[in-house]
Amino acid sequence: MQAALDAGAGYADVRVQELETEELAVRNGVLETAELATSAGVGVRVVVDGAWGYAATSELDGDDPAAAARLAVDVGRASAKVKRRDVVLAPAEAQSGRYETPYKEDPFAVGLSEKVDLLIAASEAMRTDKRIMAATAALGLRRERTVFVSSEGSLLVQTILQTGTGISATAADDYDAQHRSYPGGHGGQHACAGFELVRNLALVEAAPGVAEEALALLTAPACPVGTTSVVLDGSQVALQIHESVGHPTELDRILGTEAAYAGTSFLKPSDLGRLTYGSQHVTIVSDGTSPGGLGTVGWDDEGVRPSPTFLIRDGLLVGFQTSRETAAAIGQDRSNGTMRADGWINYPLIRMTNVNLLPGDSSLEELIASTDDGIYMTTNRSWSIDDMRKNFQFGCEIAWEIKGGRLGRMLKNPMYQGITTEFWGSCDGIAGPSQWTIWGVPNCGKGQPMQTARVGHGAAPARFRKVAVRAAE
Question: What is the C-alpha separation between 303 and 54, in angstroms, rounded?
């Protein structure tokens, strides 16, 4: 940091990070992946002549970190020659402290043989029929140790521990192939937690039911075409939040400074406090402090402690996800702590932490019982949304017809379509706290070069009226 200041930086921060990951995957009872990897490096971010500069190195000894700091200053000076405006940062109090993800059982300390045996047992428990072509089980572990210092006086040490696991079965016959996952899509469930997450999911016990549904889907009728009420399970609501609320409320997209990967946003700064985003049932909060959330941290990569921020309150757009720079650009006096980088090598971007739909006062059972005609869909299978995050279509793995308040026949290849504000405006019921879960999304892409973030979404089953549905082809 001192090398950056000596070279002319007006502001500097430094992240020294060590990353440890473990990936295990079993397919049809055979271990296919067993990888343990580590990475360490230092990233230096500076403001010089009113512009950003960044550089990183994996060499932590000798003069290499200081050389990276000087390079960051050189990059900043070059950037200043083409800047449109000076970088202005919202104030941030200097902080010092330590944070560690709470957990009960260190997943890295669990024996490799125990973890592999568990995955093999879950895979084998799904192989109940010769039509089960693929029975997979996977486990992913991640531990980040970071030291952050800034020229404003912050000194922060944090360790983030994340665990994810899931199983899936693919069934096929001469005419079709169908896929079922547990406990959700995107590899299952992921959280800031220890190995207790894996034990609580009881993969082996759930496995036969996963295979049974995959087989049943082979002969199930296709989702009908039409407009109807749709009840979504919590994991699908989580993806709906991610794509149609999380990304469009990232302020760098709104201001046009992020457009290279997956587009910008249909929102404008002037929409704040004016735009009706959803029905009165819809209240959504960005909260990097949610216990267990995959996006939960002690501080973001600007050294700002995350603060719960209402994005939508009673259907009205009232907040954005911000950095220090973007907060200042719209006249706000602090960032809400959403700047994160994919490892030490990358420059921080505004990233979702945990974007949560607050629970309602209903239940899944009540939502179904009060639906005369509709479809209950669960577990994401596919997604597509335009580059301004407005028009979308999502497919699910499985659905059931709702007739007279009761679940009826199973349906395959269900898909629904909508326009973001119209869709959220049609929400007329959300299940309560007992059915609310923070779902982890470990593969959120943004930036160029693309960075992958790990984010969370608290959600419960919800109902939406007058939704266009059809079967995926």
Answer: 16
**What's the rounded Cα separation, in Å, for the pair 253 and 318?**
17
H/E run at residue 228: strand 226-232
Other C-beta atoms within 10 Å of 364: how many?
A: 21
- In 253-330, beta strands by DSSP E: 284-286, 309-313, 316-317
Give how far Cα 407 sits from Cα of 212, 285, 365, 376, Å.
18, 32, 10, 8
CATH C-level class of 2-217: alpha beta
CA atoms within 13 A of residue 60's CA, in its CB half-sphere: 12
CA distance 251 to 349: 10
In the chain, where the domains are located: 2-217, 226-471
326 with 349: CB under 8 angstroms?
no
Question: In the prediction, which pLDDT does 201 show?
Answer: 98
Parts of the chain with a pLDDT under 50: none
Which ranges of 13-80 would DSSP assign to H, the alpha helix?
A: 64-80
Distance (Å, rounded) from C-alpha 422 to C-alpha 148?
42
Q: What is the pLDDT of residue 443?
A: 93
Three-state DSSP class for residue 201:
helix
Which residue, chain included where needed, has tokens 């087989």? 215
- Can you read off the two tokens belonging to residue 255? 């201001």
* Residue 287 · residue 356 · CB < 8 Å: yes
What local confidence, expressed as pLDDT, does residue 90 receive? 97
Of 222, 30, 215, the residue nearest 128 (C-alpha) = 215
Neighbours of 384 (CB within 10 A): 12
User: What was the pLDDT predicted at 83?
Assistant: 95
Q: Which residues on neighbouring strands pair with residue 231, listed in sequence order?
A: 376, 463
Contact status, residue 223 vs residue 395, Cβ threshold 8 Å: no
Q: What is the pTM of this model?
A: 0.96
Q: What pLDDT shows up at residue 260? A: 77
